[in-house]
Amino acid sequence: MGTISLEGLEFFAYHGYYPEEQRIGNKYALDIIITTDFFRAAQHDKLSETVNYETIYQLTAKVMKEPAKLLEHIGFNVIEKIREHYPAVEKVTVKVSKFNPPIGGVCTRAVITMEG
Q1: CA 100 to the chain's CA centroid
Q2: Which end of the chain is more exposed for a tag (fewer CB within 10 A), N or C?
Q3: Which residues sit opposite 59 in a β-bridge?
């Protein structure tokens, strides 16, 4: 077993609970950790026997284009897309960060972390 991580994926997207968030947009960052068995890929040096992180980025970018109200919904959808494409992975952890959330005070980021 091992992990494959993509850290600091950045997107500008139109998510948020409030209508103005969905209209104005905001910056988001995602960190994704996938736990899987990549022994065969390491042994045979074949991309087809592991999780392709370019594919993970593409799946995530597609989710980020779909408006959502909650960070939890984004995390859930990223996990679902990865699991659909790579059903053999043991675990997917997704951390979604929203920069400058509208909370009425100073806050660099609001962050959720999900596993599935």
Answers
A1: 19
A2: N
A3: none
Cβ atoms within 10 Å of 98's Cβ, excluding its own: 21
Residue 100, φ and ψ in degrees, nearest 5: 50, 60
Bridge pairing between strands 91-99 and 26-36: antiparallel
* pTM score of the predicted model: 0.94
SS3 106: coil
Residue tagged 């736990």 (tokens): 35
Map residue 58 onto helix, strand or coil.
helix
pLDDT value of position 53: 95
Strand partners, 10: 29
Paired tokens of 97:
């960060």
**Contact predicate 89/83, CB 8 Å:** yes
**Residue 22 vs residues 18, 25, 60, 73, 101: alpha-carbon distances, Å:** 7, 6, 18, 15, 12
- The conformation of residue 65, written as its DSSP 8-state character, comes to T
Sequence-distant (6+) residues with CB within 8 A of 39 are: none
Nearest to 21, CA basis, from 67, 59, 55, 84:
67
